[in-house]
Amino acid sequence: MSAPTTTRLTSLVPMPAGAGLARMLVERNITSFRHGWVALVTGFAEPVFYLFSLGIGIGALVQTVTTDSGAEVSYPQFVAPALLAASAMNGAVFDSTFNVFFKLRYAKLYDAVLATPMGPRDIAVGEIAWSLIRGGLYSAAFLVVALLAGAVGSWWAVLALPAAVFIGFAFAALGMFATTFMKSWVHFDYITLAIQPMFLFSATFFPLSTYPEALQWVVRVTPLYHGVALERALMLGEVGWGVLAHVGYLVVLGAIGVVGTARRLEKLLLS
Amino acid sequence: MAMATPLPSDAGTDAGVRSRARPGPRQPLSTAERMLAVFSYFLTVYRRTWRGSIIGRFLSPLFFLLAMGVGLGSLVNDRVGGVDGLPYLQFVVPAIVATQTMWVAMGESTYQVLGYIKWNMGYHAMLASPMSVRDVLRGHFLAVAAHLTTATTIFMGVAALFGGFRSVAAVFCLPIAILTGLAFTTPIFAFTARQEGDDGFNILFRWVVTPLMLFSGTFFPVEQFPGWMQPIAWVTPLWHGVEACRDVATGAVALGPFVGHVAVLAVYVAVGWWLAERSFAARLVP
Amino acid sequence: MVLGSVATVTEDETLLSATGLTKTFGDFTAVDGIDFAVRKGECFGFLGPNGAGKSSTMRMVGCVSPVTSGELRLFGLDPARHGPAIRARLGSCPQRDTLDEELTVEENLWVYGRYFGLSRKEVRTRAAELLDFAQLTDRAGDKVEPLSGGMKRRLTIARSLINSPEILLLDEPTTGLDPQARHVLWDRLFRLKRSGVTLVLTTHYMDEAEQLCDRLVVMDHGRIVAEGSPRSLIDEYSTREVLELRFDAEDHQDVAEQVTGIGERVEVLPDRLLVYADDGDQAAAVVHSRGIEPLSALVRRATLEDVFLHLTGRTLVD
Ligand SMILES: Nc1ncnc2c1ncn2[C@@H]1O[C@H](COP(=O)(O)OP(=O)(O)O)[C@@H](O)[C@H]1O
Ligand SMILES: [Mg+2]
């Protein structure tokens, strides 16, 4: 699915070889998940819990929120897009970090893959594509729940799903890139250290304007903020050209992640 | 390797202790000695690994304090001037104290315990010495209680600096927090002893820990929920922990409900302990 | 038809060749300028102790490790430029099994076959044949993890045959297996060889090298120290028989001088003396006639172990 992007990129950036067989790795993951489908199915529950808990509870307290664009919306409408973005992030990161680390360092899965015509690029593209498929399924499920809960305010929301795929792409690629540098499970604390504050502070549960001016700029640099802002614009129907800036930011991060991952894998596995 | 720590000599004279090193019949260890031997093993391990748990243990609750207490708090305070007459921060901080103990309990009672059962056989090594299953559990629970104490103390110190507590009586949150943590620890030990892989833990995190955090009156009073949902909170240990901590921290203890909360937590600890002993015995000395 | 191409074996067709092949890790040289060539249809071995550089060589041959210097050609192609094309024609069993433990036995074969771009249908039929070949048909639907070491090894070999490779690379195929499992595996490898697959294997077991290899090279410290058929190596570097003597001594060096002059040569090991003689029984008689009384005296045929000892002064398995 992201193969076309990366193929074109190869002409610009040095990118390790692949045999165009990335989809075989996706197929492998699907086969594997047939045995562990419970984990797959339950993965989407977390954002739904947040939506119902905070949507109802905090919603009853504050009634409405003034968004950063000045609109007055109900609290569930305010948090739902942010939770969609966060779940796209969480799904992508979980798959591309913990699971990939296990395959890379313990199961030696990629050593087996590289003994075949497949190359490092196929692995990078295949694993990231799989994260996107999985993340996309979660996002779709969440979107349906949000719709039923009345937290969707605009027809633009049909674009919220593709937007979630962009968010997943950025995080899956960066997460996998980071994973290639990790040597032990202890290092995953750094992932948690990056993900958890992003989840809590990217204008997820309260508007950006809550922060002092200086901090607002810090928040604006984080990738999840762009994901949240993008989803919020779409689901509340406040669409402007700024939306494209968010998408651009996410795509650039994702592209860096894919190229970086492929090159690191080449260095690690083809020594 | 575990039992190499010096033993306290309350159970005998110096000569008695020394004679244990010689071959031949020796004086049995007292209950306290056995429990402390196990405890000091876990302390030794923790001395090597504490760095790894820093983030999960100390930073997570701090992030929640800032995001919910301060950030979301400013929204709530603006709109409705706080909750139950409290600034939102002071409403939420005691709840985070209780919730943190649930996280610590999860951290100490899942992968680690399964590791000792299955992967590095740590418990088997202990059971090959004069320790019984009961000693091993007691010692390990004591070690978890020590973690709970450290983690809670540090967080409460930081939260106090942010003005998270209304009254000095909040120090009594500490024992309640430890009790809350143990109310999770003992049943989770029992659960873990029945696991083969980590699938069960994922389910526990997704379907128990996260929902409990969100539906136990942590970030808003459970009264905001429809009436039929509230009884669910009554049976979960976290809600009782949160309520008891909040009562103490705000200095507004109503004796009846408070005793009720503590009693429920104590029942969780006791029943969990009993179950843990049973499942440990079944797993380790079948 | 399980075992792939049984093309007419034209003599002397070289499938794999290396000249001055070198691999360094930092400033450590693991493979130090070795030359060898493998002909179609033969079984070629690398015999050497741990750390000799066998796996490093195999990884270069398998096109998963770049050549530091020297020339390596497979099917006349350069791995640096045609890695994927070469790997498509290779089967590879690394030293450590890299089976996919999240999948079942048959799924391992299916998925691996797909990595070669084979169609689903092709993969299914080949997998069924290969399971039969690996004697794993009744375990097809089981998870991999609980299989025995020998079964996992057979599955790895079956997996590496999914693309009907022309060369099969086996890095220490039977290390860590019990004797019975080794014999089962050797039998499978014989069948493969008979069906025309070219085998390249490494081992540090002299019996394995003797059993399987048509030709082999002896490796030590990254270099090739001898080359030939097992028989010719033994003829060249050892006597026909060996007399093994054990004494009641802390150090066998102390008793070594008692046997000087007996046989052609004496090797001293920490726990025994090896007396090399074409007639071992006669050498034993001489020992006896000198009034020397070892705890035990054993006459055996010379093996590649003796070749290695002679060439390097060390034993293969430490
Ligand atoms: N990736 C690597 N990095 C550094 N040293 C290595 C690496 N792989 C192998 N070596 C070293 O190269 C030498 C030869 O190793 P190897 O080829 O595995 O030998 P063998 O397979 O004969 O036991 C050993 O000393 C080993 O430590
Ligand atoms: Mg090796």
Structural features, described:
The complex is a heterotrimer of chains A (271), B (286) and C (318). Chain A is mostly helical. Chain A has twelve helices and two strands, in the order ααααββαααααααα. The two termini of chain A are 29 Å apart. Chain B has helices spanning 14-19, 31-80, 88-109, 111-119, 122-127, 133-161, 173-192, 199-215, 230-235, 237-249, 255-284. In chain B, helix 2 (31-80) packs antiparallel against helix 3 (88-109). Chain C has helices at 54-61, 79-87, 105-115, 120-133, 149-160, 179-194, 206-212, 230-237, 253-256, 280-289, 304-312, and strands at residues 14-25, 28-39, 43-47, 69-74, 90-93, 167-171, 198-203, 215-220, 223-228, 241-246, 265-268, 273-277, 296-301. Chain C is elongated. Chains in contact: A-B, A-C. The interface between A and C is medium-sized, with 26 and 30 residues. The structure holds adenosine-5'-diphosphate and magnesium ion (MG). The site of magnesium ion has 5 residues of chain C, from helix 1.
Largest sheet of chain C: 6 strands, mixed
- What's the CATH H-level homologous superfamily of the largest domain in chain C? P-loop containing nucleotide triphosphate hydrolases
Number of helices of chain C: 11
Q: How far apart lie the N and C ends of chain C?
A: 41 Å
Unreliably modeled segments of chain B = 1-13
Global structural class of chain C? alpha/beta
Report the order of strands and helices of chain B.
HHHHHHHHHHH
Which structural category fits the helices and strands of chain B? mainly alpha
Query: Count of DSSP helices of chain B?
Result: 11
First and last CA, distance of chain B = 24 Å
Strand content of chain B: under 5%
Question: Could you tell me the mean pLDDT of chain C?
Answer: 90
Average of pLDDT of chain B: 87
Fold-level CATH name of the largest domain in chain C: Rossmann fold
Taken in chain order, the helices and strands of chain C follow as EEEHEHEHHHEHEHEEHEHEEHEH
- Give the names of the bound compounds: adenosine-5'-diphosphate, magnesium ion
Q: Shape of chain C, please?
A: elongated
Helix content of chain B: over 70%
In short:
The complex is a heterotrimer of chains A (271), B (286) and C (318). Chain A is mainly α and 271 residues long.
